Each structure stands twice: as structure tokens, then as C-alpha cells.
Recover the amino acids of this structure.
């Protein structure tokens, strides 16, 4: 067993102890006797130092041309690729997902780096004709400022990368607080930022609890944007704190994701998808399949097949939509099966939830698949595939209590989250021209 290491905060380019000089232990969830490391138990004073450093660094970082910022992010992808195995192994010890899935988590961060590196040379704005002669109109993307990033334990490298990398390419500086249950993968990500030469103060890493570190970050007047992934209840508190100080806030919350299996579905495929969607990462994904809505004609056969394959696991069949198990997010390897009479009935059941993150439908009928894509009120819909496995270059996020209208991942929509529009009018007529007046 390796000696537990002592990990520090990263503030203004230095690895420092927290002001209170207190630490907490990060233990291996598969073997609680293994201490992976001690991390700083930070508080408001550390948040303040980190925000101050980020504010100072922002003045310079925003002036670095975006293609240059992006080159550093590309190099981060190269380093992560080289260390994929090492970081995946450490992630497994840190938060318990299988090695194969941990590799996928690191890969997701690599994909984000490569994709966003290209954004450095895109980040498109718009030009449009003016209503007046000899005048140009355009709009540019500007950074938002200091971003407070608060990330969960279940995708401990992927989700920090969804937020950190787009924030940086847009010219923002950040203070990142990883989940206390799994702070190590985010530490690695921040180390790599340092290694590729991202200037001091641009990326700050502060560990500690939600109340002690997360809350002051959401309240701090020097923070312009908060991006949070976690439960709907904590998101509500984050949202309220951000409202007080007029911050932009992007929230990624839970799900109660439904998979519909119609009577013409390939059941072998649907059973494979159900097992993967419900039980991968032991169901600890916000995209996990937690309701399977099966057409009554194939209900018995589907349940038999699924139960046979999942016999070592617990499967809850014969559920009705009013039951708590069919309504509340469990975030564990639990799935419930509901019966439906028709596509319309299945869609109604699927939409009968407070959440709206992911959904899926298994059918061989293209017409029904497209109807489902249109009618399922979720941010993501899969056809003939389970509810998990989003790719980083497409918008990620949900409707209702799964999100607040933003889409992260690393898609162009992440650039929307982390940039501010500046509209520029250039009048080269050499005289005073009045919009809405002179041309009417
Ligand atoms: C999450 O569940 O919190 O789509 C994120 C997926 C992964 C990301 C999940 N790429 O399942």
C-alpha cells in the first residue's frame, strides 16, 4: 500500500496549505483502511485568496490570444493521453469506479482538451449588415471573468474538464472546488495545467466541504459565474446564492432517465442497453437508466431476460408511476420497470417526472423513433442505445430540474456558458448617423 501523500491547495501558482492548517483524509471506498492522501480542509479565507489571485490573473490571461490559450489546452490533452493509465488507476482508488470506466473518464477529459483547443481558432462571432451606410456591425465573444467551478465525485476528471477547459479557452480564470469524496483526479488536472505553463493565478484549486468552500465561492462578489454539477437540492441553494450577487449560473442536476422498449424492439439489444445504462458506474451517473418502460406485449419476456442477466443484482419490476421508486433519483444500481400499452402511453409515463436529462427508445420503427425524439422532454435522447454515454462535443444537459437552460459538455454550447457577447458598431461615415431615425 502506497504511503498517503499530503496534497495542497493551488493558489496564485503556489501549492499552499489552507489558512486554518487543517486537513481531511481521502480514503479508498473499496478499502476504507487505505488513506489515499490528506487534502486541505479550506475555508472562506482560502476562497478569498484564490478569487483575489484569479482576479489579478484575469487582467493578463484575457489578453493572451485565444489560439495561444488553446495551444496550452492541446498540450494538456497530450499529457493526459500519456498518463491515461496512471490517472485511471489513481481514480479507481480515489472513488471506486472500475478501471475500464476510469480510463473512459480520463479519455473524456482528453477529448475535451482536443476539441476545445480547436475552439481557440473558432469561437465564432457574427457580422451582419447595418441599417445605415458606412457602418459595420459585429459581435465578439469576451470572457466572463472569474469562474467558480464546483464539481462532483462521480466523474472526477471528466466533469472538471467540461468546465475548466472551455472556461480557460474563453479567457476566464477559475477557482475550482472538487468534491471532497474524490479530489485527486481534479488535482491531477490542475497539475497538468501548471505543467503546460498556464500562468499563475489562472487556475486555482481549493479543497474542502460544500459549506466551507462551495458556499463562499457562490457568494463572493468577485466571482462572475458559477458552474455547478450536483443534486437538484444543492443546485437550488447555489442558484439562490448566485441570484443575490447577480452571477451567471450554470447548473447540471439529477435525472430519472427513462428507457422505452416497444414491442418491435430487438430485445437482446434492449437488455444489453438496460444493463449498461442502469448498472454501469453502479448507477452513479446522472444519466443512468432508472426507469424502463416496456410495451405490455413484450413486458414479460423483457423482464425474464433482464432478471436472468441481472440475477445477482436487485431489479424492481411491477412498479407503477406513482411509487417513490419511479419518481425520485436513487443514484445507485437500481432500476424499475413499468408497463405501457402503446408508444403514446410510454411517452406519457416517460415525461411524468420532475427531471429531464436523458431518455432512450428501443424500436425498429423509424417513424416511432422520430416521434419519440420529438416528444421526450429531455435534453438528450438516444435511439436504440441506453441513456448513458454522451460524447463531449455535443451539448450536455437537461430540461426541468435537470438543468437551468445551459448546456455544458465541451460542445459549442459550453462556449456560450463561458463567454459574454460584446456587440461592436463601427461608424466610418465621418458624420453623426442615428439608428432608427436617419433611415426612416
Ligand atoms: C454524469 O452522469 O454525471 O453521458 C455525467 C455519460 C457520461 C457523462 C455522465 N459521458 O454518461
Amino acid at each position: 500500500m502506497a504511503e498517503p501523500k499530503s496534497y495542497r491547495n493551488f493558489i496564485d501558482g503556489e501549492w499552499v496549505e489552507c489558512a486554518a492548517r487543517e486537513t481531511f483524509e481521502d480514503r479508498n471506498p473499496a478499502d476504507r483502511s487505505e488513506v489515499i492522501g490528506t487534502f486541505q480542509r479550506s475555508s472562506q479565507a482560502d476562497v478569498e485568496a484564490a478569487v483575489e489571485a484569479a482576479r489579478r490573473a484575469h487582467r493578463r490571461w484575457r489578453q493572451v490570444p485565444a489560439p495561444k490559450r488553446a495551444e496550452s489546452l492541446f498540450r494538456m490533452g497530450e499529457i493526459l493521453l500519456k498518463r491515461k493509465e496512471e490517472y485511471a488507476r489513481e481514480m479507481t482508488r480515489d472513488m471506486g469506479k472500475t478501471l475500464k470506466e476510469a480510463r473512459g473518464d480520463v479519455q473524456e477529459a482528453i477529448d475535451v482538451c482536443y476539441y476545445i483547443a480547436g475552439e481557440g481558432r473558432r469561437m465564432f462571432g457574427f457580422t451582419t449588415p447595418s441599417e445605415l451606410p458606412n457602418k459595420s456591425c459585429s459581435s465578439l465573444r469576451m470572457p466572463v471573468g472569474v469562474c467558480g467551478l464546483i464539481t462532483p465525485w462521480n466523474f472526477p476528471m471528466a466533469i472538471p474538464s467540461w468546465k475548466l477547459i472551455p472556461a480557460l479557452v474563453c479567457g476566464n480564470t477559475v477557482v475550482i472546488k472538487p468534491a471532497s469524496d474524490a479530489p485527486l483526479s481534479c488535482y491531477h488536472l490542475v497539475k497538468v495545467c501548471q505543467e503546460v505553463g498556464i500562468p499563475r493565478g489562472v487556475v486555482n484549486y481549493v479543497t474542502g466541504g460544500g459549506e466551507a468552500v462551495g458556499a463562499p465561492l457562490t457568494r463572493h462578489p468577485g466571482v462572475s459565474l458559477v458552474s455547478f454539477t450536483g443534486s437538484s437540492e444543492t443546485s437550488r441553494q447555489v442558484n439562490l446564492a448566485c441570484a443575490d450577487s447577480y452571477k451567471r449560473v450554470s447548473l447540471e442536476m439529477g435525472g430519472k432517465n427513462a428507457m422505452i422498449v416497444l414491442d418491435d424492439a430487438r430485445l437482446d439489444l434492449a437488455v444489453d442497453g438496460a444493463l449498461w445504462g442502469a448498472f454501469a458506474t453502479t448507477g452513479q451517473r446522472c444519466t443512468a437508466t432508472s426507469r424502463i418502460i416496456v410495451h405490455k406485449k413484450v413486458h414479460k419476456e423483457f423482464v425474464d431476460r433482464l432478471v436472468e442477466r441481472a440475477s445477482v443484482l436487485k431489479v424492481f419490476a411491477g412498479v407503477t408511476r406513482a411509487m417513490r421508486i419511479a419518481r425520485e433519483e436513487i443514484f445507485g444500481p437500481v432500476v424499475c420497470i413499468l408497463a405501457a400499452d402503446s408508444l403514446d402511453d410510454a411517452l406519457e409515463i416517460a415525461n411524468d417526472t420532475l427531471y429531464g436529462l436523458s431518455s432512450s427508445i428501443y424500436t425498429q420503427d423509424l417513424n416511432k423513433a422520430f416521434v419519440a425524439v420529438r416528444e421526450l422532454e429531455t435534453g438528450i435522447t438516444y435511439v436504440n442505445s441506453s441513456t448513458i454515454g454522451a460524447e463531449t462535443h455535443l451539448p450536455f444537459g437537461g430540461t426541468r430540474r435537470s438543468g437551468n437552460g445551459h448546456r455544458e459538455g465541451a460542445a459549442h454550447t459550453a462556449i456560450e456558458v463561458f463567454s459574454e457577447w460584446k456587440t461592436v458598431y463601427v461608424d466610418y461615415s465621418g458624420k453623426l448617423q442615428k439608428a432608427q431615425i436617419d433611415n426612416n
About this structure: The domain at 257-383 is CATH 3.40.309.10 (Aldehyde Dehydrogenase; Chain A, domain 2). The radius of gyration is 24 Å. The chain has two domains: 5-253+403-422, 257-383. The mean pLDDT is 95.
